[in-house]
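Supplementary notes for students who missed Thursday's class. We covered one full example, reproduced here. Read the sequence, then the structure, then the short commentary at the end.
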Amino acid sequence: MEHQVRDYVHGYETGESARLEDQASALASLLHADTVYPPGSRVLEVGCGVGAQTVRLAQSSPGIDLTAVDISETSLAAAKARAAAAGLEDVRFIAADIFDLPFARASFDHIFVCFVLEHLAEPLAALRLLRSLLREGGTITVVEGDHGTTCLHPDSDAAHAAVEALVKLQRAAGGDPNIGRRLYPLLIEAGFAAAEVSPRLVYADGARSDMSDLFTRRTFAAMIAGVREPAVDAGLVEADRFDAGIRALHRAAEPDGTFCYTFFKAIASAT
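Structure (token representation):
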């Protein structure tokens, strides 16, 4: 069976790199504070993108042997620059497709996958391949979002229509932006054991103005806004309705607004 990674629906422009960094900053404590690997561990990050998570992995687990891979040379160049700026000289960056990784079986103690499976047409096949790269007793950590968990106040049909346009666009590209709810069955079917999944709720209101700005405006609304042209061109939503949806998302970031979204973090064993 031939596998391939489809196009990244959010693109590789400079604005997307900035959005990914904002996302990493907003979610560092919520998603990654409990990811710590012992010194000397061989760790593989798959789909490292621009290195926003890579830097945090290396900083939170000093002394690990970290290899980061991504299919995009553009993203890898940004990741290398980000790691160098953080003083991280020992991270290895490799250009590779998740379905054609240049590693032997049982090469790693731990694998970290964040916001990658949602973009794959065959996430189960990817997980099975990654399992083969783990030593016995090794672990995989997977973090994914679920756009179906989006809620906001004041509520807005236009905002939900804009989000749904992204969902449809990503599904047309072969992905699943609601994959967070599927992590447990996917890991079990892929042959992992002791899978534990925990929901990680992002919530922002007037008392959390920093999160309203960093996540609601600069991460989530920016992500949706970034697909305006392809979503409208594909006839998934009218331009005026999409724009009204973006305004509604920004409105939810005002002092009397609220916004919440759920990520899912899974940890499973290769035994």
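Commentary. The longest strand covers residues 134-145. Confidence is low (pLDDT under 50) at residues 1-6. If anything here is unclear, bring it to office hours.
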